[in-house]
Design a protein that fits this description.
The complex is a heterodimer of chains A (114) and B (113). Chain A is built from no helices and 11 strands. Chain A is mainly β. Chain A has a single domain, classed as Immunoglobulins (Immunoglobulin-like), CATH 2.60.40. In chain A, strands 2, 4, 5, 6, 9, 10 and 11 form a 7-stranded mixed beta sheet that branches. A 4-stranded antiparallel beta sheet of chain A has the order 1-3-8-7, with no helix packed on it. In chain A, a hairpin with a 6-residue loop joins strand 7 and strand 8. Chain A is globular, with a radius of gyration of 13 Å. Chain B is an all-beta fold and 113 residues long. Chain B has one domain: Immunoglobulins (Immunoglobulin-like). In chain B, 0% of the residues lie in helices and 55% in strands. In chain B, strands 2, 5, 6, 10, 11 and 12 form a 6-stranded mixed beta sheet that branches. In chain B, strand 10 and strand 11 form a beta hairpin. Classes of the chains: A mainly beta (114), B mainly beta (113). Chains A and B meet through strand 4, strand 5 and strand 10 of A and strand 5, strand 6 and strand 11 of B.
Chain lengths: 114, 113
Amino acid sequence: EPEVTQTPSHQVTQMGQEVILRCVPISNHLYFYWYRQILGQKVEFLVSFYNNEISEKSEIFDDQFSVERPDGSNFTLKIRSTKLEDSAMYFCASSVLDGTDTQYFGPGTRLTVL
Amino acid sequence: AQSVTQLDSHVSVSEGTPVLLRCNYSSSYSPSLFWYVQHPNKGLQLLLKYTSAATLVKGINGFEAEFKKSETSFHLTKPSAHMSDAAEYFCVVSEGGNYQLIWGAGTKLIIKP
């Protein structure tokens, strides 16, 4: 069964560094998403992406963040100048359609900022 | 504005007994509702979803949930718990036209042998 994959599974970085989290969505899916879960807190929506542009973003997704689909398979989240509070589990998801369609999640990347 | 409240942060049941995980939602429009499960050190897996068809929704692993509009509830149940059900369960709401999912805080299900 096709699944969303994410790399790396765990990323450790120093405060102020840039990180890129990578995701390979399910191949026939058109909508892509990033969520994060800070330890002990709710899962939070960051951004959705369709047709090579952002469709919706939350207040969390400020200028520090960017997303890109650099080729036909990868979907990346870049975090510039990381802060301690960026430490979280980052989940990528994809869906065939928008709105109420099921979003399928990857296993997550645990980002630790020191 | 949408929101989700999971009424219990932890639920503990004995193996073989019924499971009830409670969820209430608030939504301005006709929502879609989901339950996701997260096993330790694993990703988020869809258990089931409601999208305005039948109000009783059956999911994987013997779980089901009933949408009750009058009570704004979407409780998750299973007749008989298994040790492998130990995980964290998230109730999630989405409104048509919005891309984002709104998540509850999660309920940790503990299964006692």
